[in-house]
Amino acid sequence: MTRFMKLFLSFAVVSCHYGLAQELQVSYTTELQSDFKQGNNWVNLLRLDFTHSLGKHTTLQAATISTARTRPESLADDFQTFSNIEEENHPLALATLGVQQQFGHSSLFFGIRNLNEDYFTSPVTSLFTNSSCGIFPTLSADYQIANYPVASVGLHYELQFTRWSLQTSVYNGKGYYRFSGKENVFRFCPQSDGILSIISLNYQQHGSNYHVGFALHSGMYMDYEEGTPKKTKKKGEK
Length: 238
Known about the structure:
eleven-stranded antiparallel β-sheet, 13 strands
């Protein structure tokens, strides 16, 4: 049995306020990995968050994530990988970029967004402390959705009360991180990428969080397959 060691460090958030109209936050997470056999790996995650008030109940939200690692391949030969923050080197990939409007207990966001910003999160899972393919272990394994570290165009609605909350969203069915070409994060193409709709009902009591949700994806990306016919010498199979 191969033994693994992971040293996890998270640095405090730095906030800068400018007349209560805008806020900048910087957070940095790093991991030092070793399997005591093949080598070491140094994994880094840098996140920048920026909010700016556009009115009494309207805010502009933007966040970027930058990932870097010293080893091109993962230490663990596992589908879920050794670490949940470990990804290929992506500088300044968008996590959020859009406008949020507040309506009493409700809020509506439109723009670029990552599913990990909202769904099935808690103080324990917010830093990806357990390896499970991200916050969405099943959905992200079956579909190329806007799961860390990629994002996509979406519409997100929340209804918040003291203990109960309701979240629902509609996203482009495939997530991206580039800023140009056919894989740019601003792409919205339901015909080829499909559409992801998701809803979650959440309850908080005595420090515990309870979530129940439903997701519907239209498209041909089940198990990362594009649904193209597979041809043989004798006949073609769909």
